[in-house]
Amino acid sequence: xxxAPVRPxxxxxxxxxLRQWRSVMASSRPRWSTADLTFTQLRALSAIAxxxxxxxxxxxxxxxxxxxxGSSLADRMVQRRFxxxxxxxxxxxxxxxxxxxxxxxxxxxxxxGSAEHFAKLxxxxxxxxxxxxxxxxxxxxxxxxxxxxxxxxxxxxxxxxREKC
Length: 165
Description:
By secondary structure, this protein is of the alpha+beta class. It has helices at about 10-25, 30-35, 40-50, 55-65, 65-80, 100-125, 125-145; strands at about 85, 95-100, 145-150, 155-160.
């Protein structure tokens, strides 16, 4: 499907809105900064929470970091009791990372705070603004689902369109 090029003034408006959005999101930092974790550690917790469990190599791929860095990250998070290592039930050679109670509680608290924050903002929107937001978010989800993003062996970011099922 062909798409129309974005007009330069529209592109500038979008870039300005994205800068403003990043500023708004940065202002919500106090909620997650109380966790005393780096942004990468929070992303790791979120990835493990989303998947339930994962290997260190899968975590490293998800975060776009090397296996050694992923292993070190996991080690630090195990020491701080945010995650635990468990052997796979069917194959004891496979070690999986899962959330510890402390990690689960933190993710739940952050997600609840985020949901409450956005619910307050959405409640203040007009019905047409809420409809526009829903339409826009559906488009982002649809378009994001059509592509995969990963780093290849050389470290380059590769974006590929998924094949239709």
